[in-house]
Amino acid sequence: MDASLILADLRQQFGQKSVLYPEDVAALLGKSIGAVASLRHRGGFPLPVKEVGGRPAVSIYDVAEWLGNGPKTAAKGSTKAPPLPPPANRRQSLGNALLGFQMQRDFLSSLCRETEALLLEWESEDAATEDAGTAQKKSGPGGPL
């Protein structure tokens, strides 16, 4: 559809306004004012927005062109909200905590195995010492009979 025909229709609907405010755009698109504001703040509004009288506004000519020919890239003076920071209450990943717990478990398991090996070694040394002492007692102080 030709932009000049759309402009004529917009003029009939909004009078001789040069700019349309959020309530006008919302009525034109069949959306709520909040939906239009949300689009603008997320950077998804397809038209350049300028401040007119302290309020966001779009040119009626840009609206007519957009409706007739498709979206136009936003002009340099348009107000686009900066990207939002990540939410502050976002939970940290449990991956690092789980890796830490796994490392602790592996360390404690290794420590237990080494401790058991040392205990078995000491018990076998004690048993060998006792066996040598028992054999010496049986033979007596002067040696075997």
Order of SSEs, N→C? HEHHEEHH
Secondary structure tally: strands? 3
Mean pLDDT figure: 81
Euclidean distance between termini CA atoms = 126 Å
What gross morphology would you assign?
rod-shaped
Indicate the radius of gyration in whole angstroms. Answer: 42 Å
Share of residues in helices: 55-70%
Spatial strand sequence of the major β-sheet: 1-3-2
The secondary-structure class comes to mainly alpha
Strand percentage, roughly? Answer: 5-15%
**Structure annotation, total helices:** 5
Parts with pLDDT < 50 across at least 5 consecutive residues? none
How does this model look, in words?
It contains 5 helices and 3 strands, in the order H-E-H-H-E-E-H-H. It has helices spanning 3-14, 22-29, 33-41, 60-69, 95-139, and strands at residues 19-20, 50-52, 55-59. The protein is mostly helical. It is rod-shaped and about 130 Å long. The model has no long low-confidence stretch (mean pLDDT 81). Strands 1-3-2 form a 3-stranded antiparallel beta sheet.
Structure in a nutshell:
This protein has 145 residues and is mainly alpha-helical. The chain contains 5 helices and 3 strands, in the order H-E-H-H-E-E-H-H.
Task: Set down the secondary structure blueprint.
Layout: H1 3-14, E1 19-20, H2 22-29, H3 33-41, E2 50-52, E3 55-59, H4 60-69, H5 95-139
Helix pairs in contact: 1-4, 2-3
Defining key terms:
145 residues; 5 helices; rod-shaped
